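Workshop exercise sheet. Pairs work together: one partner reads the sequence aloud, the other fills in the structure field after running the prediction. Swap roles for the next sheet.
Pair: D.N. / O.F.
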Amino acid sequence: IFHYKEFRLFFLANVKKLLIPFLTFSIINQLIRWTFFNEDFFFCVELGKRFFFLVELYWFLAALFIAKMIYYLIARLTTNIWIGGGIIMILFFCAVYLNGRHVHSYNYFHWHNALCNLPFLWIGQVFRNLRTLDNAGGVFNSFIPLYVILILVYNLMRLDIPSYTHYPHFYWQQSHSYFIFAFVGTMMIIAISKLFPSNRILTFFGKNSLTVYGVHFSVLALLQLGLIYFIRPSNYFAALVFWIMCQTIFTPEWFILDFS
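Structure field:
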């Protein structure tokens, strides 16, 4: 984020990396589903009303774009990372409040999600500023088993694990759990990146994952037209067969994208 001193350059770079893929994948996918499946074009129905939305499948691209813009402006507003953190907490709880008030109806371009994603950016920036990444490898490594233990404990105690995809799955009561998982999860990712600073397989997936993910939904929709009459994933075996077929079809795509 802070490689760009001018907001204009930062904005244009993220338009290219996030907003253009978001719009491109959304329009292509929606055209296919509108043409072959008679789905409404860019609208969804919530609480009996029609609201404009781009395709929910790519919600994270729009949310990340908005979150990065907001975080950049906050970082330029104050150089004190703790004051910035306070502003982020206020925005976060505003989003949680709106989730409960309006559910999903007014979450245009998933800006609620963007506000709830801000703590992840802030946690990473805190540890970057404290310069602890190179001197606390053992401490960071402990977050990998800790994350697994957290998931096990929550499942054993039948507690809700808060999540936020295209639709909010937590409210006020789960806010503390959301922060716990955000903190521990971010630390776990840092630990993994320190354990594998350079790995060809991870680099390959990281380089191509967004394009493959974006393309897959459109290709799967087209495959569904032909395969639905032969394979109905109503049981685990049929689902496994369908998954194997998808992997067989998409594996060449990965290498083509990587080569290009």
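Discussion prompt: The longest strand covers residues 43-46. What would you look at next?
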